[in-house]
Each structure stands twice: as C-alpha cells, then as structure tokens.
Amino acid sequence: MHSTYKEKETAVLVAVQTQKQNAAQTKEYLDELAFLADTSGIETLYTFTQKLERPDNRTYVGKGRMQDILMYVIDNDVDMIIFDDELSPIQIRNIEAEFAHFQKEVKVLDRSLLILNIFAMRAQTVQARTQVELAQQQYILPRLTRMWTHLSKQRGGVGMRGPGEKELETDRRTANDRISFLKEKLRQIDKQALTQRKNRDRMVRVSLVGYTNVGKSTLMRRLAKADVFAENKLFATVDSTVRKVTIDSIPFLLSDTVGFIRKLPTMLIESFKSTLDEVREADILLHVVDISHPNYEEQIGIVNDTLTEIGAADKPTILVFNKIDKFEVEPETTEKEQDDWEVVHGENPWEEEPKDQASRIQKVTEFLKKSYLHTPQPMAVFISAEQKENLDELRDTVLNLVKNKHIQIFPNWLTTDESYTENSESWAE
Ligand SMILES: Nc1nc2c(ncn2[C@@H]2O[C@H](COP(=O)(O)OP(=O)(O)OP(=O)(O)O)[C@@H](O)[C@H]2O)c(=O)[nH]1
Ligand SMILES: [Mg+2]
Question: What are the structural domains, with CATH classification, of the chain?
Fold first, then answer.
C-alpha cells in the first residue's frame, strides 16, 4: 500500500565543480553538505554536479542540468533542493519559477540557510539565540519576495509560498525593526559580558578553535572536566563555555566555542562577533584538527582564514591533531611512497599490523611526528581525546606556553604561586 506519510523531509543536493576544484573535492563538499542536511533531519536522495567556470547567474546550473534536476524532483516527489553555494534572490526566484510550471512546490535552500537553521536549533544562551536570529533576519531580508516568508513566523520550515505585495511591505518593515531591536539587545549583552570579563582575575586565556566536529568539546571535557555537549553532528556547540583549569599550580581559563566550516555565512560571523571574543582575546590557541578526515589539510586552511577574518591570527598556537585512533596509515600511502619512506628512515611502519591498541597508537604517533617534522609547522601534538591518548604530552606543551604567558602577566609569580591552587579544577585523567 502506498503511504504518503514521510518521516523525514527529502532533498537533492546540487554543486558546481569549478576549475579550482577536482572531482574528489567536489565529492567531499557534497558529503559535507549531506552531513549538514542530516544534522537538520533531512534525508539526501541524490546529488547533482556540473562542471562550470562559475555558477550560472540565472539558475546556478545550466539549462540542461536544471531539466535533469526537475525531472528527478518531480518523479520522486522530493521536498527540497539544497545548493552548495549561497544563492542570490534572483537565482532562488528563477529556480522556483521552473517548478511552478509543473505545479510543484519545492523548497529552495542553500548552504548558508542550512547552517543558519542548525545554529538556530543549537543555540542555548540568550546571546547565541539573539545572534542567530539577527543573522537569519539579515539573510532573509533581501530575499523577502513573494516566494518567501520569514523564518521567525514558522519554526522549522523555510521557503514556503509567501504573502502578497502589501504584506511583504509590512514584513520587510517588521524585519528591519526586528534587526534594529536585536542589534540593540546584543549591544546590551556585550556591555554586561565586557564588565564580567573585566572583573575576572587576569588569567592566561586559552581557546579551543577548529573546524566543526573535530573534537573540541570532547577535549574540553578531558581538560577541564567540563560537562559540555559533544556529538557526531555538525555544530554541536554554538555558544562558548569557559572553565578554569590548573596544571602544576598554574591556573588558566580554557574556552570551547563554535566550530568553523567552509563558506560560513558572513552575516553569521559578523553577528557572532561577541561569542568569538573569547577567541579574539585569547593569549593562546589550541587549533584542533581531525586528522582522520580526508580533507583535514583544507580544513586547517579554512580555520586559519576565519581566524584572520575575526582578527585572531598570529597568536601562539598549538596544532592539536586529534582522532589518531581513527587515523589509517595504510590506504593513503602507495607502495612506492612506502619504499621511499623506508629508504629515508630505515624502517617500514606498514610492514606488520601492531597487535594491540597501545602499540598501534605508538606507531601512528611516531609516523605522524616524522611526517610533520619535514614541514615548517607550529607546535604539533598528536592525540586522541576520546581514547585519552597522548594527553600528557599535550598537557606539557600547553603548560610551557601558559607558563611563559603567566610569567609575563605576573612577574613575581614564582614567589606567590600558593594563592592560585585553591578552588580550581585540576587536569582530568
Ligand atoms: N574516534 C574519535 N572520535 C572522536 C575523538 N574526539 C572526538 N571524537 C568524536 O567526534 C565527534 C565530534 O566531537 P565534538 O567534541 O562534539 O566536536 P566539536 O569540535 O566540539 O564539534 P562542534 O561543536 O560541532 O564544532 C563526536 O562524535 C566525538 O565522540 C577522538 O579522539 N577519536
Ligand atoms: Mg563542540
């Protein structure tokens, strides 16, 4: 029997492969888009790509590809199309018009809107909620056309048929008023937060930064015994958490905050400025990387670019390569590369499978250290936050940097350290 009840909304994904990217990268980007969709509770049925110099101004992909998408969406009664780049209001209108010929209502979303929706789902504090709503309103305002009604009216659904011209005018005015109101509210929250930060003892401030889902919150739990939320979804964290940590009687503040992603909407970065203050004002950064991710090098670049954008680059940084328990030495390396490695280093780490987890971790760590010694890198540590591997080494590296900074702030510290040991949490096992 045919049932019209659908558990999940369904989507097709669409990306353009420009000359700057190869097929493997495009696939990675689409996998990430599918992960974003999945995090929003949307099931991806199919993906479409097209090689183009740049996305088409009118309909993002060309006419022929659009026809393929149209047929698939109609035949399979798909609920929405999600594009990997931010669409202009005109592109949205044209794409929706294609479907209107077939009396098919389909939601047209893009990567930015998907990210905004996830942030809205996750925001816990008043500050984060206000910041997300501001970004949403700013995204929607130029797109308030007949096809659109704004998000705040209908939680969960976007891209429905909109109101008439007159209501649209009212909607635009309401959106503008709301934007002013939210900005003012954020100014007040910022003022309070600033006072709070000023009243805190001056302590060395360390911030966890990194791409989304790399394990920042998991590491925060290990380092500060903090009960922060971690899960295998994108943007599990969109607020920031600060905890006092003490190692060898040196106290410092550790903060965990929102992760970064490729093509993070600009309005989101802007409205999250105050959440990102923790990062901007930090003395030291722990840049966490998921070394088991096929695109981890590109992710490092994206994080560095975002840090530059928010004015937080050029701080003493430790690259924390996480998830070494999931890192596979073998499949990534050809036999020729293995032979070359053996010639240079006099051993072949691929020769035999280590028997237990401990020796496997040791082997992987040695392998990674050797690979990274060739390239100029900031300090690098290889850990597994989940499996608690090599955390002592990370602790020592952090301690060294913290100590240097601590001595700068408190030149007389060596004689007065007693007072800092009270009431502080110690490094978790
Ligand atoms: N295998 C493995 N998984 C890990 C490790 N560290 C974290 N994870 C998993 O990775 C997923 C993401 O971890 P989180 O700590 O939420 O990552 P995050 O960087 O805080 O992510 P966002 O807050 O979404 O930006 C979770 O499912 C963790 O259990 C690790 O060392 N090894
Ligand atoms: Mg997190």
Answer: 10-111 (3.40.50.11060), 123-189 (no CATH), 203-426 (3.40.50.300)
